[in-house]
Amino acid sequence: MRITTRGQLAVSAMTDLALRQKMRPVALSTISARQGTSLSYLEQLFSALRRAGLVDSTRGPGGGYTLARNTDQISVAEIILAVENLKADDLQSLGVGQAAQVKSMTGELWSTFNARVMEYLQSVTLQDLVAQQHAKGVVAEEMAPAAPRPKLSAKPRPLMARVGVPNSVFALGSIPLLQRR
Hints:
With 181 residues, the protein is mainly α. Helix content is 49%, strand content 4%. The protein contains seven helices and two strands, in the order αααββαααα. The protein has helices at 5-20, 28-35, 39-51, 76-83, 96-123, 126-135, 169-173, and strands at 55-58, 64-67. Strands 1-2 form a two-stranded antiparallel ribbon. Strand 1 and strand 2 form a beta hairpin. Helix 1 (5-20) packs across helix 6. 17% of the residues are buried.
């Protein structure tokens, strides 16, 4: 089993999402900024996570992603399997004869190893990772509601009248040439 950076970034982004989704959907652009990951790469990851049923998406202003299930119901193994292209074994690069020999000599070792790793990853939930972040002192900053806009008064403010200054291009043309200077 080979867990690449893709799987690691997916777990990190899902932890970020779990920490911050309390109030509203989380935009990928904010995760991208916090994680230092490109937005297009996160879009690919979250597309795979959505297909796997781990996240839900909301379109439009104020849209983003939320978890499809509770944090204690999503395992790290599910996240990794959703974004990684994992093979049962990594013997594809070997020739047919070599692969058969490796399988007969150590196949049981690697299949047991993979099973144990997968068992461990299934035992760790997103809630465990969130709890670890809270124990480290990470606090998800709450997004403050937008400040209310000042109301426009019903009466327009009077404009300061400037004497001798034309109020349009057309008025400018009506001023004699000597006065313009």
